[in-house]
Design goal:
Layout: H1 2-38, E1 47-53, E2 59-65, E3 68-73, H2 88-103, H3 113-118
Length: 126
């Protein structure tokens, strides 16, 4: 009977310790996220996109931060070749995605083929 009681008490002790550590980990994670958001230098930065002409009548973009060129992108990111986007609207969609990534402190703000497809761009490999 004593062994059974010891096992029950030990099990309860382990459960309480596990719950405490789980809560402590959740709080630490929350603190890290809050600190990261506080230290994000790009969150409120002055960032703007300018559409630029590119090869063969296509379009690219420049991303300016505080009036200085941060990114010069005359071609479609993540795709082979030097051609830009078919329309100014397509270039602006991608530029806005890049700005969103910069504001979220994703540096470098890499753009994947999947993200281009999610933006509704037709990706002809020329």
């Amino acid at each position: 009977m004593k062994t059974k009681n010891i096992i029950i008490i030990f099990s309860i002790f382990l459960l309480v310790c596990s719950l405490y550590l789980w809560e402590k980990r959740a709080q630490t994670k929350k603190d890290v996220i809050e600190q990261y958001e506080y230290n994000n230098p790009y969150k409120d930065a002055e960032i703007e996109a300018v559409i630029i002409p590119a090869e063969n009548g296509t379009f690219g973009y420049d991303i300016y931060m505080y009036d200085a060129v941060l990114i010069h992108q005359p071609s479609r990111p993540g795709l082979p070749g030097n051609a830009g986007f078919a329309t100014e609207e397509d270039a602006m969609k991608v530029a806005e995605l890049v700005i969103k990534k910069i504001r979220n402190s994703e540096m470098p703000p890499t753009v994947t083929i999947r993200e281009l497809q999610e933006l509704g761009l037709e990706l002809h490999l020329d």
